[in-house]
Specification:
368 residues; alpha+beta; 4-stranded antiparallel sheet
Length: 368
């Protein structure tokens, strides 16, 4: 008898381990995702605004303001007429991805527009990066034979995701969609905490100070009071500097996430913490401050993210941080849970057909 009472022989068992059933046979999730590529363009514009300010200041060029005009345009306002040639040279040399023109109605001002070819590259690149990030996250979940690829026309920026055998769809969706953008930003003395957003802005005539942004602090469950901080717009360390991240516990035994930095990130982190002892360092995740501990000593290559985490949340956060941040947000266009009933029917019919065929062969051989 080929199939004994105890099941498959060792050789057939190994064959079974190498056969992975797909979505049609095993069931699972079918998703179509839309990558909001405007986010990637928006990030590029915001970063360029800060870079232009630094470049002009380094060249000692006087200007009144540099700000975003819209999604892919930047205004450089009221440059000192004596620095006109210097401004043009700085833009043409250091910001070749942008077309330079005059800002209508404002003298000695410029309007920069992101070149269409560069914008297209940013959008398509964000889709490819999103595919790779999602694949990294799904692989760490242990899903076998997933399908993760572009879907539809290239200018629709959609991704097809098929995950066979997934038994917790809501958790998988949260992990896939989570941006997981980690930033470590300095809090200067006197810039927080404030009891509310209005109270913080009222200290500065309703406008955030130059180079600062106002972010909320995630409070623990049961604490109703708010806390807001002004932090540096430019992050000292980001998720790109992470070498690894693992779930852990803090000094009070609560779930946390420990991380280690790359050599380059560790060098910068050591310099930043060494020069800012006594100041607070906000640990920002997806635009919300998880904690803002004071820097007590120089820190080189490791740290810990604490907050109101469950063990599962800490595990999922460590997973998403290891796989990298998504370059843009994602929305779900289509979601289907595929049952394995048709697959089970097909498998059953295949087994029956095999048995019938084998019996027919045996009967023919006996007759022969």
């Amino acid at each position: 008898c080929i199939l004994g009472i105890t099941g498959l022989p060792p050789s057939l068992g190994k064959i079974k381990e190498r056969i992975h059933l797909g979505l049609d046979l095993r069931g699972g999730m079918h998703l179509i995702l839309l990558v909001v590529t405007d986010d990637a363009v928006n990030i590029e514009t915001d970063l360029t605004v800060e870079r232009i300010k630094e470049e002009l200041r380094s060249r000692q060029i006087s200007f009144s303001d540099v700000r975003k005009h819209d999604l892919d345009h930047i205004e450089i306002r009221e440059v000192d007429p004596k620095n006109t040639s210097d401004v043009r040279a700085a833009i043409d040399e250091s910001f070749q991805s942008w077309d330079r023109g005059d800002l209508p109605g404002v003298p000695n001002s410029y309007l920069l527009g992101l070149k269409p070819s560069v914008e297209k590259q940013i959008r398509s690149g964000s889709v490819q990066q999103a595919i790779q990030t999602i694949r990294n996250r799904v692989d760490q979940l242990g899903v076998t034979e997933p399908v993760i690829q572009e879907h539809g026309p290239a200018d629709e920026y959609q991704i097809l995701v098929q995950l066979p055998g997934v038994d917790d769809p809501s958790r998988v969706k949260d992990i896939i969609k989570s941006t997981a953008l980690l930033e470590l930003k300095l809090v200067e003395p006197g810039f927080g905490p404030f009891p509310s957003r209005q109270a913080a802005l009222s200290q500065y005539n309703g406008v955030a100070p130059e180079g600062k942004e106002l972010l909320p602090h995630v409070r623990e469950t049961g604490q109703s009071s708010e806390e807001w901080y002004f932090v540096n717009k430019v992050a000292s360390i980001t998720g790109r500097d992470l070498r690894t991240a693992q779930p852990s516990t803090d000094e009070f035994g609560k779930a946390a996430v420990s991380f280690n930095l790359t050599s380059d990130g560790a060098t910068r982190f050591e310099k930043i913490t060494g020069e800012n002892i006594g100041k607070q360092l906000a640990i920002v995740l997806d635009g919300k401050i998880q904690s803002a501990p004071a820097i007590r000593s120089t820190i080189r290559d490791s740290g810990q993210i604490t907050g109101n985490f469950t063990l599962e949340r800490a595990t999922d956060l460590a997973l998403t941080l290891r796989s990298g941040a998504l370059p843009a947000s994602i929305t779900y266009l289509e979601e289907r849970t595929v049952g394995a009933s048709l697959g089970n029917d097909s498998i059953f019919q295949g087994i029956v057909a095999s048995i019938v065929g084998m019996v027919a062969v045996v009967l023919f051989m006996l007759f022969y």
